[in-house]
Amino acid sequence: MQPTPEQSPHHAYPDHWEADVVLRDGGTARIRPITTDDAERLVSFYEQVSDESKYYRFFAPYPRLSAKDVHRFTHHDYVDRVGLAVTIGGEFIATVRYDRIDAAGRPASAPADEAEVAFLVQDAHQGRGVASALLEHIAAVARERGIRRFAAEVLPANNKMIKVFRDAGYTQQRSFEDGAVHLTLDLEPTAESLAVQRAREQRAEARSVQRLIAPGSVAVVGTGRNPGGVGRTVLRNLLAAGFAGRTYAVNSAFAADQATIDGVPAHRSIGEIGEPVDLAVVAVPADRVPEAVTDCGEHGVQGLVVLSAGYAEWGAEGRERQRELVRQARSYGMRIIGPNAFGLINNSDAVRLNASLAPESPAPGRIGLFTQSGAIGIALLSGLYRRGAGLSTFISAGNRADISGNDFLQYWYEDPDTDVALLYLESLGNPRKFTRLARRTAAVKPVVVVKGARHSGSTPPGHAVPVSRIPDATVSALMRQAGVIRVDTVTEMVDAGLLLADQPLPEGPRVAILGNSESLGLLTYDACLAEGLRPRPPRDLTTAATPQDFRDALAEALADRNCDAVVVTAIPWVGENGEAESGDGEFLAAALRTAAATGPAKPVAVVHVEIGGLAEALAAATSTAAVPRVVRASAPAAPEASAAPADRTVPPTARTVPPTAPGDQLTQQRSGTGPGDTPAVPTLGRIPAYPAAERAVRALAEAVKYAQWRRQAAVPGKVPEFLDDTIDEAGAAARIDALLGPDPDPRGRPLSHDEACELLGRYGITVRPTLPAPDPDAAVAAAARLGYPVALKTTAPHLRHRADLGGVRLDVANEAALRRAYGELTDLLGKPTELQPVVQSMAPRGVDTVVRATIDPAAGAVLSFGLAGAPSELLGDTAHRLVPATDRDAAELIRSIRAAPVLFGWRGSAPVDTAALEELLLRVSRLVDDHPEVVSVALEPVVVATQGLTVLGASVRLAPPPARTDLGPRRLPNY
To answer: Is the CA virtual torsion 951, 953, 958, 963 positive or negative?
Structure first.
């Protein structure tokens, strides 16, 4: 929608205000500015509003809009008068407008910072969260135009509108005047308004996925008339899975008298069906998809799975075709899985949906699986099927032009049928949002991720994503900070997923090893040490061990309070004739499962070598329903939703455990949804089996690290209050504005040394003074001013921080030594004009470190720490955390590098002042978090002594703040 010549010439049509949003019921709508072309749409919309709603809007009977009203409501300057509309199918379903007013309530212009706001929602769409979404967007528009408060007059009987304002989370005041409720809303976002917004986002996006994953009816558009083909295959799979809803076959080429195909009603269009269709699986050539989407949209289909290829994976023309597909579907309120998708599966007994090309539907289970690649999806389904794993849901999103992994994280977060989320991702469309959602989901259930295309430097076709400048190792560190279990291969993802889905979380890293092979036990022991676990000496049951021996040994290990997990190793028995007897796998599995079901709840994994039937028997479970589990008392509540789902620290298919010991705060009984429920009888759950010790131990190590993260996340870190007393946030903001100027260069600008020191000083960060030394006399004068001993060093970019090249002279004690050092420096490295020498007073001896913060367009603000020089630059020994960092983040940051022992008294050296280092990290974090214009900070070196620290060098870069995709009103990404 573009402006006409009648629009204000001073303010062009603000197309960045256009947005697609997900409503409360999971449908989509478009929000856009109202233009002069909308007169007919406005009149039509108003005619469909009830008299009661019109009365609430105008405080009097108002049956129709006059020509003057229509002109007023469609002509805006997009500054002092703004109107937004919500559209579905191109037609208005709601409007909102604001008019800037002065203190007396009269029309005004800037600098007046208050506006009167009014909403009108079509009755048929009330209750869908339309007004709440509109309030978010009109508030963001108002803030952009310098408006800080909204005023609204609402009739006391208009409870729905009063509730919209009351529940928004903004600071507000209410009064009753002249028979109306007068509301004033402060539009500055608050923690409460952000929490409300994100809770609504979670509910809406989860509901939009639920509409796709649990439809009451499915139509396969493009069902072939002959056996074979994509559409006919999907129809066959739907029928084979026993879909619980209604199924229809659609093909425009069906004969007029054809009533059924494969026993399913056959129709030539969606419109012919005559009944509601919730989900359409589109399997027609790409050039016929728009026709199919129109047919679906005009007849109320709620969502699409587009299997058709020929989109972004085919180049520029395909990318445009894909964008148009998304625009078309959203205009009708529909969401899309695909295009180029493999399909989706829902194993819930109430749904039994296999709308995919997978010939074998996996068994029901507790794992949710999302993949962007059809080929990887096939491989994962096959691998899980072979190992007897069960799935709750499976989604292969193809080009993921609309529905993404973020949407399914929203769904799985509160899905009672999913205990573990597995995701294969080739790109992150909204990395900040992914990190936020993953952290919240990981607080209640494990999230395991494999990231493809890690080193290719390119984005998979069809995936429009921000380009990240940070290395993959940094991405991995940031994921782990959010509680994500990041693994390298799909095999490792399946290994970890099986253990996490079927076993309780370990309380610690202590591992008992038992089995009938000493060699296999030693391999397992070594693997545990390599993964940072604490294994006990392996217990060799000898090759003569019977299943009963295994049962007794496992029960003993599980009962041992000094053991947190058990790895059982097994090789085939050797019979009396000397031949291996591999057919006793079922007996061994029964023994192990019985011991595990009756013992304390600890994870058990089995490593086996060619024991026939063992893996299959261990994978079999007597039930897939939720049963008693052990949970962590410290599991955190969801930080962004008003109510978190039931904690699922341990997946539901496990054993009953004895009552919690007095004083034991780590575990408690769980049955159903709460610790007070009646325990159920022991259930023989699945035990994961692995063909190699390394794979079992790696999966167990991931579970140990995740459990530790859960315990730590239960008590979130905080930013110490003492920082507030030494930080001048307002002064720093004013200085940044002055440094950038009224028309800043989009590329930004580096600050001079003095500018950087001044800005850092406002956040309590003192940089040791340096004085220029363009010649020997200037160096002597500088040293006299600073006091001996001093350091003489170059600041040329190619020599900065390169003591190994001779660009630094330390502990220069007097004038003669300084002149001699100056001569040596210039003789060795070049002229003073090239070297740019400076003189600096000596700092106390300590450990040289480096602190950095950068704004990455994909990941956001990242705080980094390492030891200066070779450890960080050559070996990549650098730790990273997302900003804002808490006291816990800062403490973990300095302890997570491999060279951390150097800071804590390695080989008899004195420990350095890590408390001062943590405080510095927190100050840098606050600086870049408070001021997004600070896109880069580097403090190098930071010398940390036994008491205190000294910042010897600093550089700062400013730029206009990059766009934030995780703040502002809710909106779907545009691809």
So the answer is: negative
Residues 6+ apart with CB under 8 A from 874: none
Q: How do residues 707-765 score in pLDDT, each as one tens digit?
A: 999 998 888 888 777 677 789 999 999 999 999 988 888 888 999 989 999 999 999 99
Q: What is the model's pTM? A: 0.83
Beta strand pairing status for 949-951 and 28-33? unpaired
Q: Are 868 and 874 in contact (CB under 8 A)?
A: no
List Cα–Cα distances, 27 to 281, 337, 358, 967, in angstroms: 17, 14, 28, 22
Nearest-Å Rg of the Cα atoms of the chain is 32
| Cα 644 to Cα 717: distance, rounded to the nearest angstrom | 20
Whether the Cβ atoms of residue 504 and residue 366 lie closer than 8 Å to each other:
no
Q: Are 47 and 103 in contact (CB under 8 A)?
A: no
Angle formed at CA 604 by CA 600 and CA 605, multiple of 5 degrees? 175
What pLDDT, in 10s, does the model give residues 129-185?
A: 999 999 999 999 999 999 999 999 999 999 999 999 989 888 888 888 778 899 999
Report residue 314 as tokens. Answer: 């085919």
Residues 6 or more apart whose Cβ sits within 8 Å of residue 314: 461
**Residue 755 pLDDT:** 95
Tokens 């995709």 map to which residue?
A: 965
Q: Around Cβ 68, how many Cβ atoms within 10 Å?
A: 8
Strand order in the sheet with 447-451: 353-356, 343-346, 390-396, 363-371, 420-425, 447-451, 485-487
Whole-angstrom distance, CA of residue 18 vs CA of residue 31 = 6
- Find tokens 């977060």 and name the residue: 413
Q: Is 891 exposed, middle or buried (0-12, 13-18, 19+ CB in 10 A)?
A: middle
Whole-number Cα distances in Å, 648 to 168, 452, 667, 763: 30, 28, 13, 42
Model confidence pLDDT, tens digit, residues 909-939: 899 999 999 999 999 999 999 999 999 999 9
How far apart, in Å, are the Cα atoms of 927 and each of 36, 570, 920, 960, 964? Answer: 45, 56, 11, 15, 17
Find the helix packing angle between 729-740 and 753-761, rounded to 10°: 150
3-state secondary structure of 359: coil
- What's the pLDDT at 468? 58
Reported residue count of the chain is 975
What CA–CA distance (Å, rounded) separates 54 from 71? 18
DSSP 3-state of 15: helix
Going by pLDDT thresholds of 50, 70 and 90, the confidence category of residue 470 is low
The position carrying tokens 């330390």 is 810
Distances (CA, A) of 464 to 9, 320, 401, 407, 431: 33, 12, 8, 16, 12
Strands 264-267 and 246-250, sheet pairing: parallel
How far is residue 1 CA from its own chain's centroid? 32
Peptide bond into 339 cis (omega under 30): yes
Q: Is 339 exposed, middle or buried (0-12, 13-18, 19+ CB in 10 A)?
A: buried
Stated as kind and residue range, the H or E segment containing 205 is helix 191-213
Give the per-residue pLDDT at 623: 44
Backbone angles phi and psi of 917, in degrees to 5: -65, -40
- Asked whether the bond before 111 is cis by omega within 30 degrees of 0, the reply is yes
Residue 347 is encoded by which pair of tokens? 């194993």
DSSP state of 704: H
Q: How do residues 70-90 score in pLDDT, each as one tens digit?
A: 999 999 999 999 999 999 999
Q: Helix, strand, or coil here: 8?
A: coil
Whole-number percent of the chain with pLDDT over 70: 87
* Six token digits for residue 632: 């962590």
Examine the pLDDT at 580 and tell me if it is beyond 70.
no
Indicate the burial class of 274 (C-beta count within 10 angstroms; 0-12, 13-18, 19 or more): exposed
Strand pairing category for 949-951 and 934-944:
antiparallel
Tokens 């960045």 locate to 16
